[in-house]
Amino acid sequence: MSFFPASLENLIDKFASLPGIGRKSAQRLAFYVLALPEEEALAFAGAITEAKRQVHTCRICQNLTEGEICPICSSDRRDRSTICVVSEPKDVLSIERGHEYNGLYHVLHGVLSPMAHVGPDDLRIKELLHRVAEDEVEEVIMATNPDTEGEATAMYLSRLLKPFNIKVTRLAYGIPVGSNLEFADDATLNRAIEGRTEM
Amino acid sequence: MSFFPASLENLIDKFASLPGIGRKSAQRLAFYVLALPEEEALAFAGAITEAKRQVHTCRICQNLTEGEICPICSSDRRDRSTICVVSEPKDVLSIERGHEYNGLYHVLHGVLSPMAHVGPDDLRIKELLHRVAEDEVEEVIMATNPDTEGEATAMYLSRLLKPFNIKVTRLAYGIPVGSNLEFADDATLNRAIEGRTEM
After folding, report:
1. B19 contact residues in A (CB cutoff 8 A)
2. How many cross-chain Cβ pairs, A to B, lie less than 8 Å apart?
């Protein structure tokens, strides 16, 4: 015997299927949504339907957008000679937050991961090669995460890009600004020494 | 400038409005839902709408149900002379899981809390009094949580029920089964000693 009504059980199941949401949290969330005023609950449901219907990937950079081409790719104030390659749409947000980079992006939608059966064909790699071949690109910055898979992906791409005779760069490794040497791990500290710059 | 499409921002906002979900988690969940196959995303939206439309409170015990009267209240195998009073629908689940209790329930939908401006009129108290007055109730078990507010609510109700001349009981306090005396807090241990039973 199930103790909750079927439609409530179903809603709990749906929440529990989300990443990082356990059964108890799913219950809590479902009860919360049930207790919302009618229109707010319907607005939640509508937000899912709407986002799913409206959001597509930009034809050029593969970032998420509602139009055919995203605001960054269609802006005339961005430097079109530089492409920053990231693995996920949220990484674009992180870099934009710095207000330092003014070029374009390319979102791979993942990283190479033999363990998870993600190969080159599962990423938006041919779209990147197409851009480099067709557009006036001078530099590609690899901004995948500094972990094993991000490294491997950056390495793989840099080899693919070699024939195009453009500059391929990688984000600098080093100690984070404002942190403490005491807390830096060995690998980071070694990279910071290797990559030291003249003052 | 917002870096995500408006409908995606809206979905992130909706997830972030849920209790215990921060901005970063909300982003992660929204991306996850966007990456779902069309039909699964729509099923999620449908589950919210459906639960909101179908689920009501039982006319008798105020627990959540899809019909007018919940399966427990309409079962003829339950002992109708006992009512167990709990604060939330999920507490019914907890007690049912034990397969020990065979009476009916009454869900208050909250506890008295002057700090949160929850008074007697915000809980399903008059529905409980009505049941005690009209039905053949012999015992009411207070099963609100063993915290300050749960205690106060149980105390308040037990006073209200006095005139009806029925048995009003409270769940036993004591050391949890399978635990270790070493880890029991003082209040629990004192209650366990007070409530000791003959062997």
Report:
1. 28-29, 32
2. 147
According to DSSP, the β-strands at B64-65 and B56-57 are: antiparallel
B72-117, pLDDT tens digit by residue? 999 999 999 999 999 999 889 888 888 888 999 999 999 999 898 9
Domains and CATH numbers, chain B: 6-54 (1.10.8.420), 64-193 (3.40.1360.10)
Widest distance between CA atoms in chain A: 72
- The pLDDT tens digits for B26-59 are 999 999 999 899 999 999 999 999 999 999 899 9
Residue of B nearest to A93 (CA): B3
Report yes or no: A104 and A139 within 8 Å, Cβ to Cβ. no
The residue type of B116 is A
Contacts of B31 in chain A (CB under 8 A): 88-90
Radius of gyration of chain B (CA): 22
Is-contact A141 A158, C-beta < 8 A? no
Q: Hey, are the CB atoms on A93 and B3 less than 8 Å from each other?
A: yes
Q: Is the ipTM of this complex over 0.85?
A: no
Beta-strand (E) ranges in B21-165? 56-57, 64-65, 79-86, 103-107, 139-142
Q: Which of B5, B36, B52 sits opposite A34 (nearest CB)?
A: B52
pLDDT digits (tens, 9 = 90+) for B121-166: 999 999 999 999 998 899 999 999 888 899 999 999 999 999 999 9
Q: Which helix (H) or strand (E) holds B170?
A: strand B167-170
Could you tell me if B54 and A4 are in contact, meaning their C-beta atoms sit under 8 angstroms apart? no
